[in-house]
Amino acid sequence: MIFLMDMQMMMLDVVYFMLRGCLRIVMRPRTKDVSGELVLITGAGGGLGRLFAQEFVELGAEVVLWDINAETNEATAKLVREAGGKAHTYTVDVTNRDKVYQAADRVRKDLGRDVTMLVNNAGVVAGRRVMERDVPDDMVERTLKVNCHGHFWVSLEQQLQFITKLAFLPQMKANNHGHIVTVASVLGLFATAFVEDYCASKFAAVGFHESLTHELLTEDDWDGVKTTLVCPYLVDTGMFEGCRIREEAELVLTALEPGYCVKQAMNAILIDQPLVCIPRITYIPFIARALLPWDANVATYRFLGSDKCMHPFIETMKSKAANGAIKAA
Ligand SMILES: NC(=O)C1=CN([C@@H]2O[C@H](COP(=O)(O)OP(=O)(O)OC[C@H]3O[C@@H](n4cnc5c(N)ncnc54)[C@H](OP(=O)(O)O)[C@@H]3O)[C@@H](O)[C@H]2O)C=CC1
Ligand SMILES: CC1=C(/C=C/C(C)=C/C=C/C(C)=C/C=O)C(C)(C)CCC1
């Protein structure tokens, strides 16, 4: 009897959330206020990280900028300060667990408050063929460490703060709010050829986000801690320079402007949306991957030229390495 009642409730929930999802496409829910939040962004010196910092500051938040590259990180801080915002920079390699914990401690001591929002954005790509042994083993490991393990060290540290709040700081428990943003990729939802290491790291980041989200939902005391998974298609930041699909397909699916990508991600974050694929059309291959037979997906990938989309990217990286623009293996 209880089982049947539970099943009825579950089905009502399913219908309700499906209807709500449809309604949200036409009627945007209210956005939350992030002014006064302390937002930590990893990879803040890079294309998307910098824009995230500027967006949050524009909305009245204070930002803590982490990057392995002190110079680009400072450049982001300068832009933020010029816009009248508050930025605090820390040179941190997110793959170094101990250094991450030390930096988190320093942030807490320096600012006298806890980080309330975290954007796990730092990422790398080798841009060489793993299966051809063009990528040194330590570079494969680095991709996994930055794009996946880093999320653990940075988030766990922040998560521990939330737990500490709940255990030791009842007034903060009453506030019960926070947000963990995982910047993954559409390549964490469906894969393409020649980027095995990158796809593995992004699929792992998606798994990390999903499990964490489920975990936060198991405790009522944590229901104010939100999560958002950001899965962009190719963005014009230079990270995947040269990556191309079939010319005709590019008319529908062009590389994203970094500013557009971050604005879309912010829209999702501000309404506590758990997942956003940018642009929306990329939900189709995500769903198709699960619904269509494998060979049917392969046929569409071939037709769209997405099976070989990384060839020109790898060639670009090779010539960059040959010109000394990036470090060769
Ligand atoms: N560009 C694209 O097409 C897409 C990107 N993404 C994801 O978006 C995120 C941002 O990418 P994007 O802005 O384009 O890339 P960028 O290379 O411009 O930015 C990444 C930043 O992360 C920093 N970083 C690298 N390793 C570490 C580390 N160990 N610790 C701390 N910081 C580190 C980089 O420093 P340095 O420059 O010194 O390496 C850089 O400043 C990444 O996670 C990426 O995977 C997702 C979909 C598409
Ligand atoms: C595989 C694939 C496609 C191409 C995807 C590409 C080219 C993604 C590039 C993503 C990048 C660079 C992400 C970085 O994190 C299409 C055309 C959507 C069709 C479905 C299958």
Structural commentary:
The protein has 329 residues and is of the alpha/beta class. The protein has one domain: NAD(P)-binding Rossmann-like Domain (Rossmann fold, 3-Layer(aba) Sandwich), CATH 3.40.50.720. It has helices at 2-26, 47-58, 70-82, 97-111, 137-168, 170-175, 196-217, 247-250, 258-270, 283-291, 294-304, 311-322; strands at 38-42, 62-67, 87-91, 117-120, 178-183, 225-232, 275-278. Strand 1 (38-42), helix 2 and strand 2 (62-67) form a beta-alpha-beta unit. The radius of gyration is 21 Å and the shape is globular. The chain starts with a helix and ends in a 7-residue tail after the last helix. Residues 42-43, 45-49, 67-69, 72, 92-95, 121-124, 146, 183, 185, 232, 234-235, 237, 239-240 line the site of NADPH dihydro-nicotinamide-adenine-dinucleotide phosphate (NDP). NADPH dihydro-nicotinamide-adenine-dinucleotide phosphate binds next to helix 2. Its EC number is 1.1.1.300. Keywords: Lipid metabolism, Membrane, NADP, Oxidoreductase, Transmembrane, Transmembrane helix. Catalyzes the reduction of all-trans-retinal to all-trans-retinol in the presence of NADPH.
